[in-house]
Amino acid sequence: MDVAARGLGKATSRSGERALGIAALVAVVVSATLSLVVAPPDAVQGEVQRLMYVHVPAAWLAYLSFFVVFISSVAYLKTRRSRWDRIAAASAEIGVLFTALAIALGALWGKPIWGTWWTWDPRLTTTAMLLLIYFTYLAVRRVVDNPSRRARWAAVIGIVGFVDVPIVHLSVVWWRSLHQQATLLRVGGPEIHGSMLAALLVGVVAFTLVYAYLMTLRLRIGRLEERAVREALSPQVGELEEADV
Amino acid sequence: MDENVGYVVAGYAITAIALGGYVLRLFARAREARRRAEVVAARRRA
């Protein structure tokens, strides 16, 4: 875990942050070009299917964000090091953004295809629950003042809340659902046209780079806020070590 | 042109506004956090 933390420390240096920002921006431009210009319209759904190239990556990043919250929460409870709590908090905030985005994009896609913005379908309902769980996670972080108690309570929610992620993913298999089956992670591999698959995969890579960039920014804020608290409380502590993520 | 293209435009616009807006908000929060850390450090030195 120390190796992972050191690697993250390098990525969150100012030069690493800038490089990630540029890479994310380039990837987003390439992804938008592939999905809006290069990929053909769907034979059945027409142009509106292009929403898949942002909806699926947003949902994927929600899963990834909450997986990082889960791993960091386990690491915090095991080591009690505040860096893991900061990583979990940063990833939860970004995960909420991507979950809300996935729901909004799904609603925009659902209206012309299903005839409704929202329905209490298993996939939609479990995703709404996921959003509520991590809203609760962020709310707990705001209301608990004691830093170690806040980190401990948040870690427990981060671990228990992650149970909903596989439920969201498998909801379309377990229950009758309006929502289509998994596009990428399915038995037998993806069943979409090559150019559509390429646009989708580039979209996933671009969103993952955006997530990494947002994490570096959010972690820098966490470090600065902790530094202010440390400076205010301790006469010995003046500088924050760069390696302390 | 496909009659549903407006949904696509809205979806990509919402994505750009949400992600771009969040990045700008993080920049502002970073500036504020740095300023607060410097104020606390200056007070300690004084």
Short description:
The complex is a heterodimer of chains A (245) and B (46). Chain A is mainly alpha-helical and 245 residues long.
Report helical residue fraction of chain B: over 70%
Bin the strand percentage of chain A. under 5%
User: How would the global form of chain B be characterised?
Assistant: rod-shaped
Assembly classification: heterodimer
How would a crystallographer describe the biggest sheet of chain B?
none
**Biggest beta sheet summary of chain A:** none
Helix content of chain A: over 70%
Order of helices and strands of chain A: HHHHHHHH
Order of helices and strands of chain B: H
Topology-level CATH name of chain A: Four Helix Bundle (Hemerythrin (Met), subunit A)
The CATH class of chain A is Mainly Alpha
Intertermini distance of chain A? 12 Å
Work out the number of β strands of chain B.
0
The secondary-structure class of chain B comes to mainly alpha
Number of helices of chain B: 1
What is the arithmetic mean of pLDDT of chain A? 88
Poorly predicted parts of chain A: 240-245
Q: Separation of termini of chain B? A: 68 Å
Q: Which term fits the overall shape of chain A?
A: globular
